[in-house]
Design goal:
With 125 residues, this protein is mostly helical. The chain has helices at 3-16, 29-45, 49-65, 68-86, 101-116. It comes from Alteriqipengyuania halimionae.
Length: 125
Amino acid sequence: MDERFEALTDQFIAEYRQPSEPSASGLPYYILMGSIADEIVTRMKNKDEDSCRAAFELVEKLHVEGDEYVQEAATVGLLEAVQGYMKGVMRFECAHRYLGPESRKWWDKLIRFWDHGDAAALRHD
């Protein structure tokens, strides 16, 4: 895992895991996804090509190999947060070169949802 993402994950777990919980399985991971999304957009702004490519390869892997919960988190937790951090700062098309085919599909569906209110676009088939 990327060192910065690992640090964000460790910080998140330290902040949100209760001492009485033996595992981190029930934590609000959408919060972590937002922190990772912010880091990805910072890297895009800094034109850190290799790091961005690696981050979006992970997003693609989550979409392709993850269970339904992981796929949804990759879309609604991560991609949507990336778009939120990009909005007004850079064009959404700036991310296209990094997105894998499955991630690109969900990226575009999120845009259709927000631009046109197309809730059906977010259905996982």
